[in-house]
């Protein structure tokens, strides 16, 4: 197991891993592989189950420090959330999910990980969790809705620190099925720029996810 240049992310035979959270030893989240080396546990990070893993394997370099605060929009059942939890040894991930069914699984994941704060709420209304979520270092969004760019912008303007960054996962077919995916990505980037955000990189998630891209933004 070798360290990468990205804090908390490891690589072995072209597969990436995170070190299992201290209070979750031996516990799997989504039937991932666990590798034990030198009294440490590493969880395989499946790019077919996690768009962030797909983006990293396709060239996205992220700098999530272990004490960061992260706002995760569209947390679902906690697959990617759990790997961010692994990286945030001394930080917190505020995981927003609108589905009560998905939230049940997310709550189970958070029981073994005290750095996950599950929030059952609609990310379209960022004011509704302002009593829980502080200013954060990273906003990560994976929501398949037509107005996904608007959701991202409204949350960034309210919660992202001035020196923070964001990662927006765009599902082209959820935005406009009449356009080619690249046109959708370009349109989303234009809207982000209009709101004062700087698009640093666009990463296509193929072959792991069809018609998806990760957009990396900074202020």
List the helices and strands and how they pair.
Elements: E1 2-3, E2 9-12, E3 15-19, E4 34-37, E5 40-44, H1 51-57, E6 69-73, H2 79-87, E7 92-97, H3 100-111, E8 116-120, E9 136-141, H4 148-159, E10 160-171, H5 172-175, H6 181-194, E11 198-204, E12 212-218
Parallel strand pairs: 6-7, 6-9, 7-8, 9-10
Antiparallel strand pairs: 1-2, 2-3, 3-5, 4-5, 10-12, 11-12
Task: Please provide a written account of the structure.
By secondary structure, the protein is of the alpha/beta class. The protein has one domain: Rossmann fold. Helices cover 26% and strands 31% of the residues. It has helices at 51-57, 79-87, 100-111, 148-159, 172-175, 181-194, and strands at 2-3, 9-12, 15-19, 34-37, 40-44, 69-73, 92-97, 116-120, 136-141, 160-171, 198-204, 212-218. The protein has a seven-stranded mixed beta sheet with strand order 8-7-6-9-10-12-11, sandwiched between helices. The protein has a five-stranded antiparallel beta sheet with strand order 1-2-3-5-4, with helices on one face. It is globular, with a radius of gyration of 16 Å. The N and C termini lie far apart (34 Å).
CATH architecture: 3-Layer(aba) Sandwich
Q: For the largest sheet, list the strands in their spatial order.
A: 8-7-6-9-10-12-11
Tally of helical segments: 6
Largest sheet: 7 strands, mixed
Q: Look up the CATH topology.
A: Rossmann fold
Q: Any low-confidence stretches, pLDDT <50, length ≥5?
A: none
Give the helix level as a range of percent: 25-40%
Specify the oligomeric state.
single chain
């Amino acid at each position: 197991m070798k360290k990468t240049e990205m804090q908390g992310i490891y690589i072995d035979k072209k597969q990436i891993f995170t070190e299992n959270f201290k209070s979750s030893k031996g516990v799997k989240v989504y039937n991932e592989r666990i590798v034990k080396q030198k009294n440490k546990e590493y969880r395989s990070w499946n790019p077919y189950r996690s768009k962030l893993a797909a983006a990293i394997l396709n060239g996205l370099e992220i700098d999530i420090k272990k004490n960061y605060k992260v706002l995760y929009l569209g947390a679902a059942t906690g697959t990617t959330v759990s790997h961010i939890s692994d990286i945030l040894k001394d930080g917190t991930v505020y995981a927003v999910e609108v589905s009560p069914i998905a939230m049940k699984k997310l709550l189970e994941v958070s029981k073994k990980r005290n750095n996950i704060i599950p929030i059952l709420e609609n990310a379209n209304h960022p004011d509704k969790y302002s009593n829980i979520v502080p200013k954060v270092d990273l906003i990560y969004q994976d929501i398949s809705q037509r107005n996904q760019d608007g959701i991202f912008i409204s949350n960034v303007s309210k919660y992202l620190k001035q020196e923070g960054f964001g990662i927006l996962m765009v599902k082209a077919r959820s935005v406009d099925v009449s356009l080619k995916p690249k046109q959708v990505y370009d349109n989303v980037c234009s809207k982000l720029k209009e709101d004062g955000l700087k698009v640093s990189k666009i990463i296509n998630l193929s072959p792991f996810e069809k018609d998806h891209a990760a957009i990396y933004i900074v202020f």
